[in-house]
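Reviewers of the previous submission asked for a worked example of the structure-prediction workflow described in the proposal, so we include one complete record here. The input consisted solely of the amino acid sequence. No template or homolog information was supplied to the procedure at any stage.
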Amino acid sequence: MKEELPSSCVRWNAIPFTRILLALALIFLVCHPVVILSNIPAQDKEIELYTLDFNPTGESAEVAPTNSSTLIAPTAAVEVMQTAITETTPFGARSVQNKDKPFLQEVGRKALMIIAAFPDIPMKYDVIWSQLECFAHSFDQIIISAPTEFKENVTQFVEEVNNLMPIVGTRIKAQFYTNDRYDAGLWCDALTAEGFVPQKAKDRNNTAKGISQQYERVLLINDSMMAIKKSNEFLEALELHNASLIALNYWGDEEQYRNFTKFNATETYNHRYWLESPLRAFSLEGVNTYADKVCSLPQIQWKRDCPHLRSMKNGSTIRDKRCIVEKTEIDVVNHYPSNKVHGLYPGFDEKYKTWSNNFLFWSKLHDKMGFPVVKVNSGPLIKDVMRRRPTTLGTCMQRRRK
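From that input alone, the workflow returned the following structure tokens.
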């Protein structure tokens, strides 16, 4: 007698076509991932991860590539690392005042950093290094603009940066000029070389027209501002305030300034609104205005350009320098609509004394507001910081000291 099979077996044997379909489906499910992966180029199969190297003071140092098996995830860096997985380069990772909300460089919005350098003492190279380590990571191009007499030393310094901080080093180039207008001249010479030509020159020589569109944001900084924290607040402030010009420090009352349209040259400078020049960020429109209005100035002479300085008791050299400060720093806000210029931190205390040689006021700015720099060439401030806050100055030189 033939043994009767279970009903499920009868159905399976009775419908061979169904068996074939199920078998094919099983093969497809098992083999499909292999087929997909086999079509991906080898270089795209690996995702490069990035970690932030934190120094003992708690500030994040240069973003560096790492292997996924050794990935470290400090709490403050988790969001950066998660976002950076989809990035092709760690150079776009930006540090901000609020480290819990980092940002990445916007695609297509290229940024240029120009450092006006007169590195006549070793500390100036430390200052430039600190800026490169803590301010430079969101910039596509970094230019060190220096007098010709420092060409050999600056070239050696750039080689050191390439060796110890290659991610930043690949973006640096050094340019050398005649130093006839102090910082403003070094900035303007570099801007001109990058295509930010004053409009008058464009009218005479049309070959420069349009080149200045290459960068949409520009940071001008000199070698007096030692970075002491990782920050990108300057470029971020341009976006936040929809500004043409952002400066680290301001003087006077911004709201009161907006109630006036123009100041005459004899007004007391102590109470007008102006922005300090050692660290300024510009939008594309803003830097083109700077090139048109400031870089187009002839060599400044106080007798012609600042006759109101006759009352000063100093000699002509000091008066010329004062006139340069007025024309290339104090008067610059007058070239922009009042709602397009903004300072991030007050430059003076309640007694109207400058932050740059005032340790107590500087420490309040740093401790309460996260002030990101120390000025090294103005009065006793740098000596006081070295004596009272010695570890602060090394925050942005971790890579150089390794």
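The chain has two domains: 44-104, 111-401. We consider this example representative of the routine output the project will generate in years two and three.
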